[in-house]
Amino acid sequence: MLFMSRCTAFCFLAVAMTSCATAAVIVNSALPITKVVRVRLIRAAEDNGTNVANAFGSGSTKAYIEDQIDRIWAQAGIDIEFDTETPIYNSAFALRGNNGSGTRPQSDFNLIRNGAAAAGLTSTNANTLNMIMVDVVPGFAPLGNLSSAGLASLGGNGITGYAGDTLLTYNNGRDVIASVMAHEIGHNLGLQHTANSLANLMSPGGSTEQLSSSQIATALSSRFVFNLPPPLPGDYNGDNLVGVADYTVWRDGLGTPAEIGSYDEWASNYGDVRSTAVPEPAACALACVMALVGISRQSRAGIRRHPAAADAVG
């Protein structure tokens, strides 16, 4: 099944700043975080390793985009956990394809995904989603620096994405990237498009990143969703490692409403590390091999709102 997704308005001119609200991340209240989805970012590059595709930037830029994706999926009680490693995929074909300024064939999606797997770059965990960042997403012509786009397997493992240079430089632009990639994760978790122009993450032309209760139920049934383990004793900052930073959190909270844990708990667990989550049995039981895997694509492009009909594929 092939279908297209929303192209959401995004402004960059000072005189049009009021319409930049369309780029802000708008979500429902978060649910208690009890589940986790793991994602591995892979960046395509030229054959010689140069001209590496954008991902989420680094430092505070990367943290902001990942936090916004987390905010979106917190509506479902899901934490999106990105691998600490981001490998480089040296393949000019994966990076931009062979179509020059024309539209890249959607069939390139499987070639990119399979090539990354053959190169040993995808996760060794079959239930970790692989998000491959490229310069030209299959199904799209080359896009500008004020655009972000993606193509994903519907209910399967795999996303190709693009993040324009300029979008990485300010928060509204980073919101665009977060929205597109959260949308693509939704497709991997089994979510299809809603009707056009709704206040919903999965709506073509949608105005917000909200999720419905039925969408949440569908996502939670995905084989890519795992139970979040109980808190690691002594891990007071939630980084899955009991270390000096946790002592600081405990000490700074003493005698305040934020007081947490105890010195004895921290000291007795110092050095403990948690690296894996516990699979959700019900979700794992739903894993299946499908003869046909649907593919969906999403684009949030700069400057103006494009009609949904302009993004339709027969």
Q: Report the span from N to C terminus.
A: 10 Å
Output the number of helix runs: 8
Q: Element order, helices and strands?
A: EEHEEHHEEEHHEHHEHE
Give me the count of strands.
10
Regions with little confidence, pLDDT below 50 for 5+ residues: 1-22, 277-293, 302-314
Profile the largest sheet: 10 strands, mixed
As for the number of domains, it is 2
Please identify which CATH superfamily of the largest domain we are dealing with.
Collagenase (Catalytic Domain)
- Specify the helix fraction band: 10-25%
Rg, nearest Å: 20 Å
Which structural class fits the helix and strand makeup? alpha/beta
Shape assignment? globular
Please state the average pLDDT score: 84
Q: What is the CATH architecture descriptor of the largest domain?
A: 3-Layer(aba) Sandwich
Q: Provide the CATH top-level class of the largest domain.
A: Alpha Beta
**CATH topology term of the largest domain:** Collagenase (Catalytic Domain)
Taken as a percent bin, the fraction of beta residues is 15-25%
